[in-house]
Amino acid sequence: MYASLVRPDTLTPHELDLYLEKGWFRLGRSLFTTSFLTFRDTLFDAFWLRIGLPGFALSRSQKEILKKTKAFRIQEGKFTLTDEKEVLFQKYRDSLNFEPAKHLEGVLPEGSTLFDSREICIYDGYRLIACGVFDMGEKAAEGIISFFDPEFKRYSPGKALMLHKIVLCKERGLEWFYPGYVVPGYPRFDYKLDIAREHSEYYDLTDGEWRNIRELEVKKQPLARMVSALVHLEGVLHAFGFEDFRMKRYRFYDIVLDHAYTDYDLMTYPYFVHCFSNSSLEEVVIVYDTFAGTYKLVICHKMFQITMPPDEHYFSEFLLREARMIFAEPNPFNFVFGLNELLKRSTNAVK
């Protein structure tokens, strides 16, 4: 699956380390993973990032950033959700040119004991001007959120909070700090790459290994490979006379990250070739599995009908669940040969 969400009842520090190591991250009271993200209706690859702490050392410019905050009081401790922090978060939120969570409580639910959440707060006298929250594991930590009073933006409080988190985790003997994902082609998250480029690794979804960030080649990652494979297949299909089989973007690939739909095992492919409706309850599609490197002919159940304006480039009429795979083949020509033979033998399409 390219997106998934779990809601464990308990979570030990060691178990959090294991989730982080496999490309999962906190989402409220849950943990999630995703291979893709959508911003302004554009689809991107998402790559989980981690920083090796044993070799990390502050650069000269990072020391200068921390020096800016020396005039303020810095306090570290167990995270607590307060009205003061919620007010500060709303002030920070109003200053942004994008829309984050509506409330801090939505990011860090009150009363949740699943995670060992810590905070670093920066005060100007008794006035809270910045706050950063991170979760501690056994040998790793994940950075959850940082927010600050925009009046103090000249002091680079966001960058300072990130560095304070990393330095604190290193001092406590942790091995890894996970700052979340980076999104090549969408620069809002690029600041994470500048924290410790020499000691940063990304999670390679093709084989489940962590690699140095310098090895990242977007063209070899899932989105580019999936689109390229399906575009090629669509051309072969049309050459064989299947002109009505069209590549579509599936709007709801990540709806499984919504708690209301997590248990339905819905499809997580962001693109597929739509073939035809097999019945009032089924759709036939072709997906490209980037993990296995194969095309798959799949029968999907129509789980929920959705009302959206029609768009020939999107499939947005139903939420789909993969019901059964008919066959799989890595070679696009062999796949179309097999599909052609299958449809010729069947008088009722695919049963």
| CATH architecture designation of the largest domain | 3-Layer(aba) Sandwich
* Percentage beta strand: 35-45%
What is the CATH topology classification name of the largest domain? Aminopeptidase
* Termini Cα gap: 25 Å
Largest sheet: spatial strand order:
7-8-9-10-11-6-12-13
Estimate nothing, just give the exact number of structural domains: 2
| Total count of strands | 19
- Tell me, rounded to a whole number, the average pLDDT: 93
Radius of gyration: 23 Å
Shape: elongated
- The biggest beta sheet, please? 8 strands, mixed
Structural features, described:
Helices cover 23% and strands 35% of the residues. With 351 residues, it is of the alpha+beta class. It folds into two domains: 3-216, 3-Layer(aba) Sandwich (Aminopeptidase), CATH 3.40.630.30; 222-345, no CATH class. The strands form four sheets. The chain has an eight-stranded mixed sheet, sandwiched between helices. It has a six-stranded mixed sheet with strand order 18-14-15-16-17-19. It has a three-stranded antiparallel sheet with strand order 1-3-2, with no helix packed on it.
